[in-house]
Structure formats: C-alpha cells, structure tokens
Amino acid sequence: MENGSKPSKSREPGSGQLRIGVAIATAGRPEIVGKTIDLIALQSRAADAILVCSPSEEDVDGLWEDRPGVIRLVGPRGLPHQRNRLVEAADNLDILLFLDDDFVMDSRYLAEIEAVFRDCPDVILTTGRVVADGIIGPGFSFEEARARLSAPTAPPAGRLTEVYNGYGCNMAVRLETVRANALKFDEELPLYAWLEDVDFSRSMAPFGRIIRVEQAKGVHLGVKSGRQRGVRLGYSQIANPCYLIAKGTCSWKKGLFHISRNLAANLYGTLRGEKAVDRPARLLGNLKAMADLFTQRLAPSRALRL
C-alpha cells in the first residue's frame, strides 16, 4: 500500500541541489512519529519528501489527518524490511536520511548533510553528531531535546570525522551507490535488528567514505514504548554480532566489543537494580544466546521464539 505524493524527478545535473528524503520506519508509536514529522518542517533546508513505513495502518492511526504530503507505506514488521521498502519508494531521490521515529534534528541538519554530499562526491554515507542519547537511560522528552539542541556547546574539533559505521537513528545514504550495487538491509536480522546500521554501513564501505558530520546535530529521545521485549533484545545483542562477524560485515574486534559491553552493562544493571532499562530480561537473553552459541544453534532469527 502506498499513499501520498511520489517524490518528483531528481534535479538537473549542475543545479547545485540534491533531492533529499527523510525515511522513518515506525511501529506502534503514532503520537511520537507525528511529533517528529512536525519538527522536520522546522529545517532551514526543507526535505523534498518524507516517507513513513509501518507494519499496518493501526501503527500510524490518525497520523495523516493534518499531514497530507507524507508518503505512506506499509511493509512487513521489522526494521530491515521496512527500510528496504522505504528505499524502493525513494527511486526519484538522491539522498535518503533514515531517522528513528524519536530522533530530533537540529534545524540545520539537512543543510549540513546536503553540503557534504554535494561537495564530497566520494562520501556515500553520513551520520550526525548525537549530542544526547536517551537510549542508554530513561530517555528524553521532545522539550528536553530541543532545549539540549539550543544550549551553547563547545564547537567540534573539525567538520568531518571518518567513522566505522553510521548510527542507525540518523544515517543518510547516497542512493546512487545503493542502487548501483543492489544494496539492502539484511532481513535475516529480525525486529529491531540490533547492529543493522553496522551491517549496512560496512556493505557500503567498499564504495566510498563513511563520515560523521559534526555540525549535523541531533538528540535521540530513546522512547521506551513500542520496543521489543528485553529478552529478545538481549538475545540479539549476542546473536547479531556473531552473525555479522561470520558474514564479514563486522570485524571480530568490533563484534566482541559489542558483546562484552552489553554483557557487562546488563550484569551490572541487574545487580544494582537499574529501573530505566530491563537489564534482567536482557541478561537472560544474553545467557540464552550464549547457550545456543555453545550448542551451535545460534541464529538471529531465534530471538523470535523468545
């Protein structure tokens, strides 16, 4: 199913402007995604298209009443499935910015990434500077996010920083590269698809540079509603890095870093009785994945059985 206006054709070569779309995969959080879409209108450089993909119309109930220009898509549940659907629908765009439905951009975010993609033809993927990330704590409100973005901060050391991967909550790609190499998000990674950003970034890495644009700032609210159960996420924290190491899109050092960091955080959070995150459930998922690893049954899809 697809509703809303389709993006118009790419601008003529040499026009100095790229066509930039904002792509949001969402599920079960219509009020949150609605506020995020409304804030996109505050960008100093307007988005050429806003695309939203959900598993069903119920997931975005009431979202379209006052937002007729948003392109509406329905795709199978799971972040990789939904993001692949968004890429398919962006066939007339040059750049596609993947945003989590709870990511708040600074007003110059789109202008900053457009300048980088325009001036640096070898850059094929960008990510912004997350000035605050609520995913590691109780989270932030929209008001807190805007206050943090407007607060004075020390300027970054440079404009661009080479990075290993984009951060999936705000990650823009040059679609010409994606199309030319038939790149897709890996649908073997289910649901929230832990580390799908690493996998997709490293799939793109042979074709150009991956850059953090320091002036493209944002706040990740880390809204807790609508996320997968803690035991499933805990399983994915072990299974997905192991899968990507075997696949070749994550170095073993990077993968072991992710595994050890999450095991330590879940154990420590469980022992100290952390309230903001369900550490005991995540730790249980970690342990179930470790058991499957030792019995050679470990696979990302097994998280769906928990």
Automatic annotation (TrEMBL):
It comes from the Bacteria. InterPro entries: Nucleotide-diphossugar_trans. This is GT2 family glycosyltransferase. It comes from Rhizobium herbae. The lineage of its organism: Bacteria, Pseudomonadati, Pseudomonadota, Alphaproteobacteria, Hyphomicrobiales.
